[in-house]
Amino acid sequence: MRQALSGILSKSASSLKTIMILAFAMTFVVAGAASSYAARSAAIVIDAKTGKVLYSSDADGRRYPASLTKMMTLYLTFEAMAKGKIARNSPVVFSARAAAEPPTKLGVRPGGAVTVETAILSMVTKSANDSATALGELLGGNEANFARMMTAKARALGMKSTVFRNANGLPDPGQFTTARDMAMLGIALREHYPQYYGYFSQRSFLYGRKRINGHNRLLGRIKGVDGIKTGYTRASGYNLVSSVSDGDRRIVAVVMGGNSGGSRDNQMAGLINAYMPKASSRGGGVLIAKAGGGNPITALAKVFLPKHDAPTPDEKPGNDAVAALVEENAPIVEETTPVVQTRKVKTVAVATVDDIATARVAAAYAEPEAIDPVNTASVPSGWAIQVASSPKRSEAQAFLDKTTKQAPAVLADASGFTVAFDKDGVTYYRARFGGFGSKNAAWKACSALKKKKIECYAVQQ
């Protein structure tokens, strides 16, 4: 009996030992898989005027983006602002999910709200995770839908090796990118939304009575650095995307997988010093095609002011004339509250790490309207400037984008949007910039545009 019991115990101990060994081995396997993207550093330097790669080290190796993810969240935020769907002072309500995100965070309670601009500033300085989630929920209805929008936009911008799963970059094994893709996104942010790019150079901002300082230590330390974003998780290592200008030269550099914030910053400084002199002082054409339509230059050739639409007067119309123009050309919109309203987004399976699932996500949101699921319930109130109208929404939007690039200072505080109207059985789309607080402010801006040979007129919404 004793012998039998001893044998059983011996076998049990042996089995337990085997199980423990297997479990220990599996721990290493899982840990190895989780850290494989961060096993080596990656870097790239691109001439932001010509697109030439000046330096590359494992630039196409998969890495975890960490808070670099917020660059895409901000891209989609800027896109919504430029289209008039949200404004700088629009409220961003923090859900219980957003408020519960781990630090770093702004610390807004569930049900509380901040303005879009405050959310932006908290992301570019403090890298606030709760603000990123709240913006994602505002723009996408929920964070899962927003992550699909992010991935679709990445694909439309040419970022072929990136998948997003959340708005803030908190750890998720299915969220990955490359140094090359992050450089492309950095270039796209500046090229497509120059009117908002200045946010990335913000080193601190006041939140109530508290001053919040930023994480990007290269701002003010390295000449010409004007952003863009830092990032860190244990799995990703220390990441940084920098945009740098020196006279007529401009580069975007990316460092991922640094061992510490200091070593990452030093590596970035070395790349800037080494490759900025090699950047071209010429060039300056569009490097990243804007998502959501064909060639914008081709589209602009077709934009026109229809004969039956409101005229472009040389003299300022009086109040009666303005009222008549508004009455005759009243935009077909449904006034609701609140100003910004989201609509349901087509549901697709969540992307997996493999390329097949990534392709499915891109295909599901290939159409411009699917990529952009935020619906505007009403146009901005106050005074607006109309610069064109077209039978195609995409052409009207292209004209807004072109005008913004031609006069970024004039339109710094304005929001572009399109408004549909019917004339003689044909639907046209007005291209307008809203957000002007008075008639004089609108006409002053319009006069400045006319000096740049951009035709326009002011109208009260």
TrEMBL record:
The protein, known as: Serine-type D-Ala-D-Ala carboxypeptidase
EC number(s) recorded for this UniProt protein: 3.4.16.4
Source taxonomy: Bacteria, Pseudomonadati, Pseudomonadota, Alphaproteobacteria, Hyphomicrobiales
PROSITE patterns: SPOR
Family of this protein: Belongs to the peptidase S11 family.
Keywords: Carboxypeptidase, Cell shape, Cell wall biogenesis/degradation, Hydrolase, Peptidoglycan synthesis, Protease, Signal
Domain SPOR: 377-461
Active site: S67 (proton acceptor), K70 (proton acceptor), S127
Superkingdom of the organism of origin: Bacteria
GO molecular function: peptidoglycan binding; serine-type D-Ala-D-Ala carboxypeptidase activity
Gene3D superfamilies, alphabetized: DD-peptidase/beta-lactamase superfamily, Sporulation related repeat
Swiss-Prot/TrEMBL GO biological process terms: cell wall organization; peptidoglycan biosynthetic process; proteolysis; regulation of cell shape
Transmembrane residue ranges: none
Residues involved in substrate binding: K229
Extent of the signal sequence: none
